Amino acid sequence: MKTALDESIKQRNAYDLNPKSISRDALDTAANAVEVAEANLEVARKQYDLTKAGAWVYDIDTQEKTYNALEKASESSSALLSKYTLIAPRDGVVMAINVTPGSFVSTQGAYDQYTQGATPVLTLGSSPGWLNVRCYVDEILVPRIPPPGSIKAQMSVRGSGVKISMEYVRVQPFVGPKIELADQKAERVDVRVLPLVFKVKKPDGMNLYPGELVDVYIGQ
Fold first, then answer.
1. How many CB atoms lie within 10 A of CB 82?
2. If you average pLDDT over every residue of the chain, what do you get?
3. Second label for 135, Cα 20 to 30 Å away, from 55, 81, 96, 198?
4. Which value, to the nearest 10 degrees, does the dihedral of the CA atoms of residues 163, 169, 171, 176 take?
């Protein structure tokens, strides 16, 4: 403001002394510069007064509504993301994830093209220190099963000569159709079997995983 005013005064004094020394156009330009500077000063003064007075209540309301809208958008995005996130219901070892990008998943599980049925989306197990072994005894051999207190069993791991002793856990007292086939060409499917459950401690230094097929010998 002061620079424009000083320049205008100089131009006016020179014009008053000798009108031919300064053009009328230069004089008008200096006067316009003073008016522009005065207008800018007034705008700056009003901006200062607004800043000093604080934000308007309308601005505060607008900011609050903007904040609430962004918070709701964040919650909506989190809810949408949770629909596509697999979360284990408990601590354990994830043994299998039966879905891939693009798979169809419903509340009943994931669609399996091989079995044409629903399979669990996530297979979760405990620490593999102990493994359960479920064997199926032909109904013809059920009368020959020893009493629970004297049952001794061992399993043979296929592909090796290892034999591991097992501990009897329980019997599932329901004879049902045989559905587990170790050799589909040699085994019959028109028989009924009784499930027995044993447990075995995983040997050190040996690869043994849930889902393997093993041969079981039961005696007393």
1. 9
2. 81
3. 96
4. -60
Our CA dihedral for 182, 186, 189, 194, rounded to 10 degrees, sits at -50
* Statement: residue 113 has pLDDT above 90: no
- 162 within 8 A of 203, measured Cβ to Cβ: yes
Same domain membership, residue 212 and residue 191? yes
Using left for φ > 0, alpha for ψ between -120 and 50, and beta otherwise, residue 203 falls in beta
- Provide the domain count of the chain: 3
Q: What is the value of pTM for the model shown?
A: 0.52
Measure the CA–CA gap between 218 and 192, rounded to whole angstroms. Answer: 18
Tell me, yes or no, whether 33 and 110 share the same domain.
Answer: no
Classify residue 164: in a domain, yes or no. Answer: yes
Contact 37, 44 (CB under 8 A): no
φ/ψ of 39, rounded to 5, equals: -65, -45
From 10-14, 63-67, 209-213, the region with the lowest mean pLDDT? 10-14
Residues 142 and 201 both lie in one domain: yes
Which residues, 6+ apart, have CB-to-CB distance to 195 below 8 Å?
A: 134, 135, 136, 137, 171, 172, 174, 176
Q: Which domain holds residue 190?
A: 128-219
> What pLDDT is attached to residue 207?
82
pLDDT at 142: 92
Residues 105 and 153 in one domain: no
